[in-house]
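ARCHIVE CARD
SHELF: 3
SLOT: left
DATA:
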Amino acid sequence: MSLKVTIVVGNPKPQSRTLKVAETLVEHLLAPGSYELQVIDLAEHADEIFAWPSEKMSALNARVAESDLAVFASPTYKATYTGLLKAFLDRYPANGLEGLVAIPVLTGANLMHSMGPTVNLVPLLIELGATIPGGGFYFVAAEMDRLDEVVREAASTYAANIARVAALADHTRPA
């Protein structure tokens, strides 16, 4: 069975470096051929993000909620994630992402806001019911020439955390 993986990118610029970072993280984290990937580049949906109701946005929200893993990526705006990503996540009810493993990713110009994904995005994802396998990942945009190296290290940490949690499964009481 193939994993359902979704990348949600809140960069107002389509096909951004933030998207590239998120895609690279998934590529380094998961075995090739073991997952089906869908990318939701919110810049392509900005005209409907505030439309209520919206069948298109509801379908995108459902796709994420039905995923096994989702990467939520955004450039750093005012020390946190973009309003575009916030507006997308605001469409979920309480625990609307229950059962989803989520990795928050922020990109930024320097390390000044490196705690941003952990301090700002992780609590929102937890509030929505997602499980976070470690802190958020912050990528400095000036490191694009070292993208694979930097992301490989982050993916290794996430993989180790996921493996430790998975090892507990055989020892837990049935739900």
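SLOT: right
DATA:
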Amino acid sequence: MPENRIRVAPNTVAYADEENLKLVVEFAIPGAPTDTIDLKILEDSVHLTAPARDIEYVSALALAWAVKPDKAEAIYEHGLLRIEVPFKDPMEDAVKVAIKAGRGDTPVKKIKA
């Protein structure tokens, strides 16, 4: 990477699709060759670096809702990188907890109004 390359935050938009099943993130990164784009997605963030001519696009987004990074799809055309990644069900990794009965019945106290 040339030392005189300027780092720039790309124009970015992020939104839920119409069914609220996927997160869509769009980065405007005109001039970045597809093979130089570095896109990484975690459950809670998206990280992008993309060199283009004399600039380098750099972005890091923290996500408010967890996503499934292994299901992400990205398309780059006409200078626009579009990412679609499904939201993670918040109960997906939930563990059912067994409830044990207590020792004997707990007496119920009646309260007079």
